[in-house]
Amino acid sequence: MEKNRKLFLGENGKLILGKRKKIILGIIAAVLLVGLAFGVKYYRDFEYYQKAMSALTIENIDPKDIKDGTYTGSFDARVISAVTRVTVKDGKITNIELLEHKNGRGKPAEAIVDKILEEQSLDVDAVSGATNSSKTILKAVENALNNGAV
Predict the structure, then answer these.
(1) Which residues contact 106 (CB under 8 A, 6 or more apart)?
(2) 61 vs 46, higher pLDDT
């Protein structure tokens, strides 16, 4: 025990570490700091996401009020986001492309695009089990249509 103690204490009784141990401790400290930074960022993003989703409303826009063209819209709640390209012709939504969908487990929500096309309305039911991703896609489509409003 006394021998091990002498390995870490200098003549003045202060703790000394070898160069290798300093490097290892430095790496451990850096990994812990990076992990902490990612944890804080994720917590803030998740907090923002919860607030954004609870305040989210979808306005039902009549495609007849949109001039012919192709419009891009997006919605970003940090944890979930979507970018859409919507084509309107003769007062009808003729195509919706989902250009980007960051979704976690909400991939099934992408089926909402077909519902919108079928109903010609944003007033459609969210996909069960993917409600927030459904709302995110709906908001991105709404924002695209607002870009083409007359």
Answers:
(1) 80, 130, 132, 133, 134, 136
(2) 61
